[in-house]
Design goal:
Blueprint lengths: L5 H21 L5 E5 L6 H17 L3 E5 L6 H8 L7 E5 L2 H8 L11 E17 L7 H10 L5 E4 L5 H13 L4 E4 L3 H9 L5 E5 H9 L3 E6 L25 E9 L4 H15 L2 H9 L3 E2 L7 H22 L5
Parallel strand pairs: 1-2, 1-3, 5-6, 5-7
Antiparallel strand pairs: 3-9, 4-7, 4-8, 4-9, 4-10
Helix pairs in contact: 1-9, 2-9, 2-10, 4-11
Organism: Azohydromonas lata
Protein name: Tripartite tricarboxylate transporter substrate-binding protein
Pfam families: TctC (PF03401)
């Protein structure tokens, strides 16, 4: 086995370090692409576009949102995992990063190993809503209704791996009751089916449901967080109505490809944390019922540990439900 002479090895390390510093000094020198795994107009897209505007201001270059849909979000994640590790292609993804290993038998990337975590972004509470003409108008009325009509009740979700599907799995586990689930190709079609009384229930993000709740076009049964949310202070949680321990929040994280220089990662993180403080962004998130995460989660380490914890949490539940894709 041949070894590089100490002088040459030291020179190579110095060159690598100098190159990384040079990249950091020059970054960013061109527009940044923020890839999201879901369609335009969906809840993650709404967050991404608001964030893109704020980040453009704080990082000093245009941030362009690119929708790369398909395969339950794995297409976009796989694309970013293989992108040049230079900080110009970033991924904004939600809980799907933690559930993909359990959902997909042939996942072409590792969420834990093929990305550089940058920061968590926001937490979005979810709401359990029903078609307006459903006889049950409260959770107290809904639970016996589900039991009596188990074979007829159906619950919409936005497709394999969507947070609405995860919420329906968690709800089914919490009440110990099976019901039919109906997949749609996105949140908008699922909501349209609910508004048209083609399905009975939907559990989805406040960014998708708030408008219809305020317009009184759906029945609202509760929010999915452990505490009531500021945007709906009078709406009880599912947990306080008897579903002890029920907790479902849609969290979002920002990632770069593995191998992106740490000096670039830190530069993105600094600009990103400043973007989260932009008044316009904060106001938009408040109106949508979304909550900006605490500062201890706005770090690469915070996102990395959270992703690991969520992967461990959802894996057993998904496997027990027998939900997977080839």
């Amino acid at each position: 086995m041949k070894f590089a002479p100490p002088l040459l090895a030291g020179t190579a390390l110095l060159f690598t370090a100098s190159l990384a510093l040079a990249q950091g000094d020059a970054y960013p020198s061109k527009p940044i692409t923020l890839v999201i795994p879901f369609s335009a107009g969906g809840p993650t897209d709404v967050v991404a576009r608001s964030l893109g505007v704020a980040l453009t201001k704080t990082i000093g270059k245009p941030v362009v949102v690119e929708n790369k849909t398909g395969a339950g979000g794995t297409l976009a994640a796989g694309y970013v995992a293989k992108a040049a590790p230079d900080g110009y292609t970033l991924l904004l993804h939600h809980n799907g990063m933690a559930t993909a290993p359990a959902l997909y038998r042939k996942l072409p990337f590792s969420p834990l190993n093929d990305f550089e975590p940058i920061s968590q972004v926001i937490d979005v509470p979810m709401t359990l809503v029903g078609r307006k003409d459903l006889p049950a108008k409260s959770l107290k009325e809904l639970l016996p209704y589900l039991k009596a009509n188990a074979e007829k009740v159906n619950v919409a979700h936005a497709g394999l791996g969507a947070v609405s599907q995860l919420c329906s799995l968690l709800f089914r586990q919490a009440i110990g009751q099976n019901f039919q689930t109906v997949p749609y190709q996105g949140t908008a079609p699922a909501m349209n089916a609910l508004l048209g009384s083609q399905v009975d229930l939907l559990c989805d993000q406040t960014t998708s449901t708030t408008t219809f709740i305020k317009a009184d076009k759906v029945n609202l049964y509760g929010v999915t967080t452990t505490q009531r949310i500021p945007a709906m202070p009078d709406v009880p949680t599912l947990a306080e109505q008897g579903l002890k321990g029920f907790n479902m929040v849609v969290w979002h994280g920002l990632y770069a490809p593995k191998g992106t220089p740490q000096v670039v990662v830190q530069k993105i993180n600094t600009a990103f944390r400043a973007a989260l403080k932009e008044p316009a962004f904060q106001q938009q998130m408040k109106e949508l019922g979304a909550q900006i995460v605490p500062e201890d989660k706005q770090t690469p380490e915070g996102l990395r540990s959270w992703l690991k914890a969520e992967t461990d949490r959802w894996g057993p539940l998904i496997k027990a439900a027998g939900v997977y894709a080839d």
